[in-house]
Design goal:
The complex is a heterodimer of chains A (126) and B (218). Chain A has 126 residues and is mainly alpha-helical. Chain A is built from five helices and no strands. The chains are: A mainly alpha (126), B alpha/beta (218).
Chain lengths: 126, 218
């Protein structure tokens, strides 16, 4: 539980960027309508590459903080695998939701604004 | 029971330059081991090799005579204080202590200047205060050994004295390997001191030995 809390804390720093990438995928799928299946492979690679790049950026800009996690028994590899797998599964869940049921526009906007405002609040509080 | 950490046969090359060639170092629980050396002699590299985050050509790192390849994955064995600040700035002092399973009142008793600073963000602390928190968590958190790379940097003379007293108190609980350029302070607290020079370690006993080896001028 303690480890999970620490990994979540690290993930919190890259969540917004990853979430926006996921939402952009969902938006594109919604726009393609019946032809959504045509771009699913492109979106898959878009997501995979963005996960790798965003993690690399987080590690690059917070290199010193990695010693904090290391001293608590959480290696860079563990951070990378856990956050990437979770983020990919979250993306997959959103994509499936959109493909199978379709996310209503108002819900999509509500989700986007809630996340953005929460982040803005947290940022100001800091 | 006394536990030992031994590093020997370490060889490290950077291109054509051989940085470490004949290193022998032994730390024991209950003792403070000092490591001195001029800039660029490889003190931090040696610590990273012991930690397992830097690969060397040849190395033998043994805890209680058992070879350990990557001690960085074993915080129960070894903790590391790097020479730069490493605590995420967004955390509060209390959160940091809690992450390492430590209690704020104990910390506050030891370092009274932190009274009323429980909820302060790490980014709100001065350089010396931040270094104090970092030293405290690494030395106090449960593990057999801790390596401190330049712990006295950023500390004022009063803080240095308090930290030295703290290190002497805590050495009962673990083995400490400390490197710092403030050799007087290091000599004050260390039970034995190695000097790293030209890739080799020399066990020194007195400040005269350091003079003979060309580290200080008396």
């Amino acid at each position: 539980m303690h480890t999970l809390k620490l990994i979540t804390r690290f993930y919190g720093k890259i969540f917004l960027a990853n979430f926006l990438v996921s939402l952009s995928c969902v938006y594109l799928l919604g726009n393609y309508g019946d032809r959504a299946y045509e771009i699913i492979i492109v979106l898959f690679w878009y997501k995979v590459i963005s996960i790798v790049l965003l993690f690399y950026m987080a590690v690059y800009y917070q290199k010193q903080e990695l010693y904090y996690y290391q001293n608590l028994g959480i290696s860079k590899l563990k951070l990378g695998i856990t956050t990437s797998v979770f983020d990919f599964l979250f993306w997959l869940a959103l994509i499936l939701w959109q493909l199978l049921l379709g996310i209503p526009g108002y819900l999509f906007n509500l989700l986007l604004w809630t996340i953005l405002l929460t982040h803005l609040y947290v940022y100001i509080k800091k | 029971m006394i536990h030992t950490l031994k590093a020997d046969g370490i060889q490290l090359d950077f291109g054509l330059r051989r940085l470490l060639s004949d290193v022998y170092l032994k730390c024991e629980t209950g003792k403070i081991t000092g490591l001195l050396g001029r800039n660029g002699q490889g003190k931090t590299c040696l610590m990273n090799i012991i930690l397992g985050t830097l690969n060397s050509n040849i190395s033998s790192i043994r805890f209680d005579d058992q070879m350990i390849r990557n001690a960085s994955k074993r915080p129960d064995l070894l903790l590391y204080l790097p020479q730069f600040n490493f605590i995420p700035k967004s955390l509060s002092v209390n959160q940091v202590l809690s992450d390492f399973g430590l209690l704020y009142p104990d910390f506050e008793n030891k370092f009274p200047e932190f009274k009323q600073k429980r909820d302060f963000k790490v980014s709100q602390l001065s350089g010396g205060q931040l270094r104090t928190v970092e030293i405290y968590i690494i030395v106090k958190a449960p593990s057999l050994f801790a390596m401190l790379d330049e712990p006295f940097t950023h500390l004022n003379p009063i803080q240095i004295d308090i930290i030295k007293e703290f290190l002497l108190e805590e050495k009962i609980n673990k083995g400490l390997l400390i490197t710092d350029h403030m050799y007087n302070h290091l000599l004050d607290v260390s039970d034995k001191v190695y000097l790293l020079k030209d890739g080799k370690t020399y066990l020194t006993k007195t400040i005269q030995d350091l003079d003979d080896l060309g580290y200080v001028r008396l």
